[in-house]
Structures are given as structure tokens and as C-alpha cells.
From TrEMBL:
Membrane topology annotation: Multi-pass membrane protein
UniProt subcellular location: Cell membrane; Membrane
Main location group: membrane
Organism: Prymnesium parvum
Protein name: Ammonium transporter
GO biological process: ammonium homeostasis
One cellular component term from this protein's GO annotations in UniProt: plasma membrane
Residue ranges annotated for the Ammonium transporter AmtB-like domain, each copy included: 38-441
InterPro entries (alphabetical): Ammonium/urea_transptr, Ammonium_transpt, NH4_transpt_AmtB-like_dom
């Protein structure tokens, strides 16, 4: 066989191999495809949490305001999506060199009204936007429950706009973007899925809003004694809590941000989330029974959420046994904060949003800084490294100053202009009849 014939055979073989590679590439999943699909599904789980929030909040408020709170939850998603596409994602992730706030740059030309269609990884960029949007929507929704039953729709739209468009994105830029001052200092904040970044941010804004708008009529007597306002539908509350719990299985494991090579942290985050939620729930239930002699299903629901929020920061960095302790302590933090807010501070927070999300979110980042085990990538104080605890403490102060300060600048002028709270007559009648054409129920 001649050398010429051999060369021709080799060329034909190479052409066949190239054709097979092209066919495989066209017909089989690539790593980027798998990662994009993973973020799409996990984002859908997190977005489904909006259903859980809607049911929990609607069930907790009185029937005369059910339609109003459901509408506000829907608007969270609608307004948040446009804002996160327009500039929220850019503030959160674009930039470089600036350690405080994101800005348009050549390093990340995938937001601020411009999506780069020529990028080879555009699918991954889009699904990453989608996943991060669902987190932003969750943070904004936390506030609606704390201010339920007496806040105007205009006031609600203003604070949804500000939280989704400025307050929350800046917190994200400090931490998850990799460009911010927190991420570059002392090893960065240990907050895998957002105890402090998502939940504490929403909780801080919630307590400021609830304080400024004032309590619901009839919530406190002239003597200051708190009067209970019972949820109108416990079935909605339980169903909403279950949906939120399911959504957390996208929230925490999805925070790996990709599928390939992340099986270990995904699996660990699932078991730690489950154990912490269970520990928080059982602790609240038993304490409530011992102190009031009542098996309180509403408190049980909040105990589950307290445990989930508490472990969100360290879900992929702590041992399962540590998750039980984190959820157990988180239950007491929730109960103590709830009692302090309503009985000592006289602030009406119908959903206990600050106690569950704000206080347990704060505990979550500190718990991660204490219990993080070196075999899971970070070392907490109990294993010899106090750096994460220092970062968590300083981030807490910075978050209170930023979120609390801007929330005051947002809510107080609205109140002074008479745009934050509905009239006493409207509140007594219920906003469904006053503003939404009738009650949520025909019976």
C-alpha cells in the first residue's frame, strides 16, 4: 500500500471522527446543557415558593384581606422580574474594581438591558439570571407579610421596587458577586444559600416597615396588651409551609449553581436542611405545649421555617448532627424574637417575618461560622478558625445599616405623605371589598 493511499485513509478516518463528534455534540447533552437544565429546575422550585408564601400569608391574615395579599404576592414576581432584568442583576453581579455596587462593564455584558446573544454560554447566562431572580423575589416577598392588612397598594409597589432594584442587589454584590468588599475580606461571608443575604435582608426591611406603618387596628389595647388576631385558614398556612419546605430543596442544593461535580454538597445540603427544619419544628411545638398547653399548628409551621432559614447559610458546610443543633437553637431564637417584637416593642408583624427570616437568618450565618467543618471546604470557630465569625458579625452590622437605613428613607416619607397606610374605614371593612371588587370567598 502506497504512502499516498495511507494518507488518504487517515484523512477519511479523521473526517469520520469529526463527523461523529459533530453528531454527538448536536444530539447529546453537554456539561453546559446539564448545568443550564439544573438551574432551570432548581429555579422553578424556588419560584414555586412564591405559591407557598401566598398561601401562608393569605391563611394567616383575616378573610377580608385575602385577595389583597394574594395580589401583592403575584405583583412581587411580575415587578421583580422586570426590575431584575433591567438593572437588578447588573447591580448584583456586574462590574469590577468597585467594591460597593455593580455597574455596566465589559467584564459582564449580560444585564442592564443587554443580553449578549453572541456568547457561547448564553443559555447558562440566562438560566443563571432566572435562578438569581427567584431569590430576589423571595427576599421582597418576606416584607409583604409583616405589613399585611393595612398597607396601601401604592406603598407596597414602592417598597417592592426599591428592595428588588437597589437594597437586595447591593447586598448580593457585596457577597456573591466576588467583586464586593465582603467577599474579598477575611475569606468572605460563609452564606452558601442566603440566610443573611436573602432572609436577613428581607427580615430587616420587614421590621422597619411594620414599625413605621403601625399595628393593625385592634391589635393592642390602650394599656398596651396584645390581643390575638387568629389566622382565618389554617389549611392554607400548613399547605403554604409544606410548599415552602419543598421549595427549599431547590433553594439550598441549587446554590451549587451547577450540576457537574457538585453531587456531594447537594446531597449534604438536602439532609442538613431536612434535619434542621425538623428540629426547629419539634422544639417549637414542645415548648409551646409546655407553656400554653396547646398544640399550636401555626407555631409548628413557623418552627419549620425557622429551622430552614437557620441552616440555609451552612447547609453545605456542616455535619448533619450540627444541623440538628442549629435548628434547635434557631427555634428558641424565633420564639424569643417573636415575643420581643410583639410584647415588648409593640410592633405588629402578622407573619413573624422578622423573627423567622431576620433573626434566624442572622443566626444562620453565625451558626455556619461556628459549625463549618474543614472537610466541607470552610473552617468554623469550633474547628479553630474564627475568621468566618468576624465576617458574619461585621456583615450583620453592615446589612442592618444599609437595609435598615434605606428602608427608613423609603417608609417614613411614604407615611408622612399619607401614602403608606389605608384609612381606618377601609381597614375595618377589609381591602378586598374596598379595593378589589369584593371578598375572596363567595360563601
Amino acid at each position: 500500500m502506497s504512502i499516498t493511499q495511507n494518507a488518504a485513509d487517515i484523512a477519511a478516518l479523521n473526517a469520520t471522527i469529526a463527523s461523529l463528534r459533530a453528531e454527538l455534540s448536536a444530539n447529546y447533552l453537554t456539561t453546559a446543557d446539564a448545568n443550564s437544565f439544573f438551574l432551570l429546575i432548581c429555579g422553578a422550585f424556588v419560584f414555586f415558593m412564591q405559591t407557598g408564601f401566598a398561601l401562608l400569608e393569605a391563611g394567616t391574615v383575616r378573610a377580608k384581606n385575602a385577595k389583597n395579599i394574594l395580589m401583592k404576592n403575584l405583583l412581587d414576581a411580575c415587578i421583580g422580574a422586570i426590575i431584575w432584568w433591567a438593572w437588578g442583576h447588573g447591580i448584583a453581579y456586574d462590574g469590577g474594581g468597585n467594591e460597593f455596587i455593580g455597574h455596566p462593564s465589559d467584564l459582564a455584558p449580560n444585564s442592564f438591558f443587554v443580553m449578549d446573544y453572541n456568547r457561547g454560554d448564553s443559555g447558562t447566562a440566562y438560566t443563571t439570571w432566572w435562578f438569581q431572580f427567584t431569590f430576589a423575589a423571595a427576599s421582597a416577598t418576606i416584607v409583604s407579610g409583616a405589613m399585611a392588612e393595612r398597607t396601601t397598594l401604592f406603598g407596597y409597589l414602592v417598597y417592592t421596587f426599591c428592595i428588588s432594584g437597589l437594597i437586595y442587589p447591593v447586598i448580593v454584590y457585596w457577597t456573591w458577586s466576588g467583586h464586593g468588599w465582603v467577599s474579598k475580606w477575611n475569606g468572605g461571608l460563609l452564606d452558601f444559600a442566603g440566610s443573611g443575604i436573602v432572609h436577613m435582608t428581607g427580615g430587616i426591611s420587614a421590621i422597619v416597615g411594620a414599625s413605621v406603618v403601625g399595628p393593625r387596628r385592634g391589635r393592642f389595647q390602650d394599656t398596651g396588651k396584645c390581643l390575638p388576631i387568629a389566622p382565618h385558614n389554617s389549611t392554607y398556612c400548613v399547605l403554604g409551609t409544606f410548599i415552602l419546605w419543598v421549595g427549599w430543596y431547590g433553594f439550598n442544593p441549587g446554590s451549587t449553581l451547577r450540576l457537574s461535580g457538585k453531587g456531594d454538597p447537594m446531597g449534604l445540603s438536602i439532609i442538613t436542611s431536612t434535619l434542621s427544619a425538623s428540629a426547629g419544628a419539634l422544639t417549637v411545638l414542645v415548648v409551646k405545649k409546655l407553656t400554653t398547653h396547646v398544640w399550636d399548628v401555626g407555631m409548628l409551621c413557623n418552627g419549620i421555617l425557622a429551622g430552614l432559614v437557620s441552616t440555609t447559610a451552612g447547609c453545605a458546610n456542616v455535619h448533619p448532627w450540627a444541623a440538628l443543633i442549629i435548628g434547635f437553637i434557631g427555634a428558641f431564637i424565633y420564639m424569643g424574637a417573636s415575643n420581643l417584637v410583639v410584647n415588648r416593642c409593640k410592633v405588629d408583624d402578622p407573619l413573624d417575618a422578622f423573627a423567622v427570616h431576620g433573626c434566624c437568618g442572622c443566626w444562620g450565618i453565625h451558626a455556619a461560622a461556628l459549625f463549618a467543618a474543614p472537610e466541607f471546604g470552610r473552617t468554623g470557630l469550633f474547628y479553630g478558625d474564627g475568621a468566618p465569625l468576624v465576617v458574619a458579625f461585621c456583615f450583620t452590622l453592615a446589612n442592618i445599616a444599609w437595609t435598615g437605613g434605606l428602608s427608613c428613607m423609603m417608609f417614613i416619607p411614604l407615611k408622612l405623605m399619607g401614602l403608606l397606610r389605608v384609612s381606618p374605614e377601609m381597614e375595618d371593612a377589609g381591602m378586598d371589598v374596598s379595593k378589589h371588587g369584593g371578598r375572596a370567598y363567595d360563601f
